Amino acid sequence: MAHILYAADDAAGSFSAKEVTDDLDVNWLHGILKTRQVWICPATHNIVSTNVGISPFTSRVGLVDLIKISVSRVSAGKSYQSMGVMGVGTPYSMSIPTAHDGPVEISGIRKTDRNINSYVKYHDSFGLAGQVPGPSKIWICTESLFVGNPYYPDLGDNHDERGVATGFCDGHVEFLSQAAYLRSYELSQDEGRTGIPLTW
Ligand SMILES: [Zn+2]
Predict the structure, then answer these.
(1) How far is the CA of 164 from the centre of ligand 1 (A)?
(2) How far is the CA of 99 from the centre of ligand 1 (A)?
(3) 68, 77 in Cβ contact below 8 A?
């Protein structure tokens, strides 16, 4: 929900302030979210402390545990991550503003309240080429999934192999089972992913 409020305030309607694909900093949502505890999945012992740090990607200052993400259920760092970019590895690209380096061209697109309604799936994994997923199928946040296979719910992740809570761009949240996970991921992210291995 905070991402939708952020998009409403952003000049370009962007759901995310992400400048670099690997940048998992979410301090840009901190002014909207009044408590840092919303970043903690109740199934974990993750913590978001008041310690301050600097993002290695953007040099922005913020809470270190919102710059980092948890790497397991018992580590420091937020339990959830934003999914601000889609279509990495497609011919789609986008110019986005950055705080220090001017506009940069990224592979794929950064999700905005203007481009998610008409986004057309490029890759044909799961037979999805040509589909228009729309805001109710496009992810905006999900859980840390770095134990075992990355970006796949398995033993040791926040809910083990049972699945993950994922938020969508229309504001609804679903608990995706492991069986439903990969198709939903690919319908949202359009990376040509067909199985557990990532394509990037
Ligand atoms: Zn959870």
Answers:
(1) 6
(2) 32
(3) yes
Ligand 1: centre distance to CA 41 (Å): 4
How many Å lie between the centroid of ligand 1 and the Cα of residue 59?
29
Ligand 1 center from residue 182 Cα (angstroms): 17
Structure confidence at residue 114 (pLDDT): 93
Mean pLDDT of 181-197: 98
Mean model confidence pLDDT for the chain: 92
Mean pLDDT value of segment 157-178: 96
* Cα 168 to Cα 140: distance, rounded to the nearest angstrom: 5
Which pLDDT tens digit goes with each residue over 100-155? 888 999 999 999 999 999 999 999 999 999 999 999 999 999 999 999 999 999 99
How far is the centre of ligand 1, averaged over its atoms, from the C-alpha of 5 (Å)? 22
**DSSP label of 79:** S
Cα 159 to middle of ligand 1, angstroms: 6
Tokens of 12: 């370009």
Give domain limits for the chain: 2-189
Instruction: Flag whether pLDDT at 54 surpasses 90.
Output: yes
The secondary element (H helix, E strand) that includes residue 184 is: helix 178-189
Copy the structure tokens of residue 93.
């690209």
Q: How far is the CA of 50 from the centre of ligand 1 (A)?
A: 22
